[in-house]
Amino acid sequence: MKLIIEKNRYISNKKKLLIYLSSLILGIFISSFIFLFKGINPFYAIYKIFSGSFFSLFGLKETITKMIPLLLIGSGLTVAFQGKFWNIGAEGQLLAGATVASWIALNIGPKVDLVIPLMFLGGFIGGALWAMIAAYLKSKLGINDIISTLMLNYIMAQIVQYLIYGPWKGKTQYGFPYTDNFPANAILPLIKNSRIHWITLILGLIAAVLLYFFIYRTKYGYEIRVVGENPNAAKYAGINFIKVSFIIMIISGGLAGLAGVGEVAAIHRHLSYPDQISANLGYTGIIVAWLALLNPLMAILTSFFFGGILVGGDIIQTSFKLPFATINLFNGLILVFALIGMFFIEYKIRIDKE
Predict the structure, then answer these.
(1) CATH for 53-319?
(2) What SS3 class is residue 349?
(3) For the chain, what are the domain ranges?
(4) 41: helix, coil or strand?
């Protein structure tokens, strides 16, 4: 008796949706046992997470706030992952964008009234340039993209640490390792009585829509998908792998950089500790992209969902006195089951009786 794994030749959209939703529900169900092991009613814990995140006005506003960087990062990563470029470096790319935007805010902001567009442009360029290092290392030197993008996260974090403890340390921050606060014209406007920076939210929504058409309706998007599905066929067809790699990383790194601009210019209003600015948003964005089945439009929904999960993490801390790492474990298990669901969408298992 043998187990044989075969690629599905055809599977209806209805069946895909059923498998996908079933895997998510099962993932949430299994994840809830984390609370059971802590002596907490798992159904009550799940209720608290979702009711606090999605069914209260304050929770909903916070969910959208958390959604904004996840949408930008997640939609950018859908492009990278479709091209089989394993960009694990959104954390560092976010920090690169935040750093460039902070320099613009502090140095150009006092001299130029309309500085916010420059901050977004600088943030995109900063994130893209940092991501292009990994593109160069992979395409020219053959260095593993997972390792390079991951290591670049730590390098960028150390650069930020150096700046806030050294030359950029604010003179008005009472000795704390922050830059000075941004001038008023460099702070993003918020929706009233919330922390939702609507400019960045609109940018994220526009980016998701444009990326969908880019991937499925343009020549470059087609080349990215061909490289991801069959690199040998892409090479035979004359597709320039180096060019595709750089396009992928400019997009995904640049969008992560925009997320960094939103975090420093709206939430913190200065550059501070790397783990405060990013707070694992880059890694959570990976889950957002995969949960969206690598579809930028679906990333709108999955980023909203995981924004609520992050808000639920705060609720877990306050209501049950559990560490925030609990929500990371919760997220990880959901991702595992989402990937299992994706496997059964792509493949089928049959038993061959000899």
Answers:
(1) 1.10.3470
(2) strand
(3) 1-40+327-354, 53-319
(4) coil
